[in-house]
Automatic annotation (TrEMBL):
It comes from the Bacteria. Involved in chromosome partition. Localize to both poles of the predivisional cell following completion of DNA replication. It comes from Rhabdonatronobacter sediminivivens. Residues 11-189 form the AAA domain. The lineage of its organism: Bacteria, Pseudomonadati, Pseudomonadota, Alphaproteobacteria, Rhodobacterales. PANTHER family: P-LOOP CONTAINING NUCLEOSIDE TRIPHOSPHATE HYDROLASE (PTHR13696), PARA FAMILY PROTEIN CT_582 (PTHR13696:SF52). This is Chromosome partitioning protein ParA. It holds the Pfam family AAA_31.
Amino acid sequence: MSDATDNTSPRVIAVANQKGGVGKTTTAINLAAAFAERGQNTLLLDLDPQGNASTGLGVLPESRDLSTYDVLMGEAPLERAMQMTGIPGLWLCPANSDLSSADMALYSNQNRTSMLRDALQQPLLGDSALDYIFIDCPPSLSLLTINALVAADTVLVPLQSEFFALEGLSQLMLTIREIRQTANPDLRIEGILLTMYDQRNNLSQQVESDARDNLGALVLNTMIPRNVRLSEAPSFAMPVLNYDTASRGAVAYRALARELLIKHQKLKPAETSQ
Ligand code: ADP
Ligand code: MG
């Protein structure tokens, strides 16, 4: 969506992998929170009809009158649908079950793959200027995910450190390539993130070395360990950074934020020791 000469539009990062349970939502919530903690005004847009990111940030279904669905269908501006969370600098555009009918509703629309991009390109008024938008994608390569990839500057791919992890990746890579050839030539890969990594487990190590051998520099240095605090935090309606700030999960997502913000030249390596 943005380009290098345009400082005003937020950088849009889609968190995508058509496999379920690989850590997309956990990454979207905690990385968005870690970016906000670093002073970046950040929006998490929940694009999964299950609404796990919305629940995980404590937004109850009754407080989702305006949702991603309305934004996607051009029925409400993003500015009205997004809401503040309890975390300074972090906003949420919530999802509700309306989104499960979006695929059908989009299908008959001529602009069915670019609806989200158009919605995100509307300028935000007031003081809600955003630095980053994270999109939490559903576990499919449906029109919803396609909309996210068309709207995004980059795609961040969580990869669960387990057997068959790399198998599903080729389909996603193919989809990314097709979108580059058509609707979004500038789409880049933010990185491949190894999640639920267990360093005592040979299988995790094997998946890591396979991924680094095959995908090279696309694989991010930071890996997210398997950490029970990460799975507990959503039921307390907060990111792990707030739920257990010194947990290994929190430390890892802060390290990931640092790695990406340095890459985006928003942080200097010298600032990273805190
Ligand atoms: P997705 O959005 O890809 O479906 P989730 O982020 O919802 O995946 O994660 C699937 C499940 O695994 C959730 O119960 C989540 O709490 C748990 N989980 C995710 N990442 C970790 C981790 N690093 N350590 C432990 N549990 C995790
Ligand atoms: Mg999810």
